[in-house]
Amino acid sequence: MPLLAEMRSRFEQSRPFDGMNMGFRIHLEPKTAVLVETLLAGGANILAIGNQGTTQFDTVEFLRDAGADIIEQPDESKTDIAANLDTIAASEPHIVLDNGAELIIRCFDNGAPPVGATEETTSGAFLLREKYQGQVGFPVIVINDSPLKAIVENKHAVGESTIDEIVRTTNITLHRKRVVVFGYGWCGRGIAMYGRDRGADITVVEIDPIKALEAAWDGFNTATLEEAAGFGEVFITATGRPNVVPYEAMELMADGAILVNVGHVDTELDIPGLHRHAGRTVIKTSVTQHTMPSGRTLFVLADGQMANLAVEGGRGNSIESMDLGFTLQALSLELLAQDAASLDNGPQPVPTAINEWIATTMLRIMQT
Q1: Does residue 354 share a domain with residue 262?
Q2: Ramachandran region of residue 22, left (φ > 0), alpha (ψ -120 to 50) or beta?
Q3: pTM for this prediction
Q4: Do 257 and 242 sit in the same domain of this protein?
Q5: What is the CATH number of the domain that holds 95?
Q6: Domain range spanning residue 280?
Q7: How far apart are CA 206 and CA 209, in angstroms?
Q8: Residue in 321, 279, 309, 266 with CA at minimum distance from that of residue 169
Q9: What is the CATH number of the domain that holds 301?
Q10: What are the pLDDT digits (tens) for 201-245?
């Protein structure tokens, strides 16, 4: 990860986070460890948890040895996670790195807001810009607003890793499979593109008519939820919104259909509704079979968690893409630590100067 290596060398000299407590909530896996090491080298005191279903605890042990305070334990419930978020917020961190905005919200609810925060996800940005519009009294740099992250990490890395993990986990081929992609944002674009490259017949479900037209011009079929439920074989959600595929749509699906979520929000698929109405059998780690009242069976990967990382052995996005994404984080956090007062309050994009430096540097590295 050469971009983060440059950041680490720079931070070792400049120590931008000296004396600062950093509240940290993001997926904890080997690539994240490189970001944590980079921030520790800059003097940060890190109090952290990961996300349910994606934390790799060998990485957690490594990070604890490196000096980060990771308070997450294996097999935690949503109640445990909420308590951990409260613990981090109560520590009154100077800076927050969040993945879903739950920690950011707790910090300003506590009356001890940080000087600034970064938010990794679209779903977290939706929350801050909609439900909490005008309430965030400090700058929040939304990493997912970066065009670099959209192109490299979301379109290419999420697209590639999602298709790879579906094929690896199920051991099916996608050739001539009717694959339905929900959402034609950057992640949906990438999943559709890489699915087509693997031989799938792609249909896009998108409620935004402009994005739906884009999908059609990109050569994909489009359909409504109800139409797609009747003919799809593999269903993939990537919207950042809850209840994208309700139980009522699952009742329309064919025997043997496979359901996959790769959005950050683990409620895109109505898994609670499925559990209420259908029997559940664990076929293998990360694959459950659900027997519907009609007798048909549906298969779900990773219980609706973010499948490209949450399935057994999931590796998530490529190293190169995360090098770029985490350098966006590192430089944004440095800006917040050193000059948060220069930024407006509330959610905002990554500054242009950061995007341009990373793009120029990554292009040079790729062409060397």
Answers
A1: no
A2: beta
A3: 0.87
A4: yes
A5: 3.40.50.1480
A6: 156-310
A7: 7
A8: 309
A9: 3.40.50.720
A10: 999 999 999 999 999 999 999 999 999 999 999 999 999 899 999
Neighbouring CB atoms inside 10 A of 196's CB total: 17
* 160 and 299 co-located in one domain: yes
Are residues 173 and 257 both part of a single domain?
yes
Same domain? 305 vs 346: no
How many structural domains is the chain composed of?
Answer: 2
Same domain, 123 and 178: no
Quick: pLDDT tens for 294-323.
Answer: 999 999 999 999 999 889 988 889 999 999
Looking at 283, 310, 337, the residue that finishes a domain is: 310
The span from the CA of 57 to the CA of 44, in Å, is 21
